[in-house]
Structure formats: C-alpha cells, structure tokens
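Why does this matter for the project? Reviewers at the last site visit asked to see concrete outputs rather than summary tables. In response, this paragraph embeds two records directly. Each consists of the residue sequence and, immediately after it, the corresponding structure tokens. Nothing has been edited or filtered.
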Amino acid sequence: MHTGTKRIYVCHGPTCVQHVRPVWQALAAEIQLRGLADRCELIVSGCQGRCEDGPNINVYPNLTKYAHVTPEQAREIARQHIGNDRQVEACLYHEVY
C-alpha cells in the first residue's frame, strides 16, 4: 500500500451486516470497473458504533464517515471520493453533539 492509498472500512457489525452485502458488492464492482484497485483497500470492519445509521463506511486517511449508504451511494463513493478525492455529500455522517 503506497502513501496515497485510501482505506475503506465497511461496517459488518451485527446491525449493518444485515444490509451491507449489496453495498459491499456495488463498491467493489465500481472500484474494479473504474480501475481504482491500486488507489484503495476495501476492508471489512467490526461495528463502528453507529448501528442506527448503517450501513456505515469510514474512509481514511482524513477520516470521512458515511451513513445510511445505499448501493448507488457506494458506487458514488468509489467514483467521487476514491476516484476524485471529493466527499459524497448525500451520505456524509454528521456528528450530533
């Protein structure tokens, strides 16, 4: 993994795992389709602690949290965030304090 590689953690905790398979598949397929596999690492993560907001995806470096991710949004994360270094506003997670 080189310095510019993004790490994409896709939650597979007890709640997210019930809905994450099509999200994972869409993300993986779009990464392959766009030739982005050398720019990112797709990782199964444990619970990210935001169960009510799942499926959840965290992208590093410079942590970006995505919530309620649909398969289409997962494809957009691959195209925009991984491909063009632009966050996908439609599914950004916003902390509530």
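We now turn to the second protein, recorded in exactly the same manner.
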Amino acid sequence: MSSASHPKASSGALTLGALGAVLLGQGDLTQAKRLFEQHLAAGRESGMRVLVALAESELGDLALAQGDLAAARRHHEQALAIQMEIESKLQGAQSRL
C-alpha cells in the first residue's frame, strides 16, 4: 500500500503515535508500547519511511522511560539513520532541479 493511494494510512499512523505519546506521558507504558508498535507497523505497511522514523523515536523514548538504555539507543539510532536517508534523498532531488 502506498501513502499516495491511501492517505488515511499516514494520518492513522500519526494518530497512533500521538495517542501513544499521551499514554507515555501519563505513565501507561504498556499501552503506549502497544500503540507505538502499531504506529511502526502502519508506517512500514504504508512505505512511508518518515512514519517509521517517528515510531522508532517513540519506541526509543519509551525504552528510556523503562530504563532500558540499550533499547533506547538502538531505536533512536534507527530513527536517525532513516532521517539521514530521507534527507540525503531530498538533497539529491533538489540538486537535480
């Protein structure tokens, strides 16, 4: 499924992430994790790498809240790698204009 043909996929994924962030802020780590994992799955399914990066970052924040520094680092490094990949592609596209 592509985000162009299914615009609701990206808004649904963002909603999952936003709800997860609220639950994380309220200390409901179990439900926050469930929503962040759904956000990640939706991002992967839609093919929108930016959604995957956001979900990885959210999972990193959750891991940090749980005191799992190794998992927090792993998720945040994955998010950063995706963001750098996206930026590189954007710069390449801009240079061709």
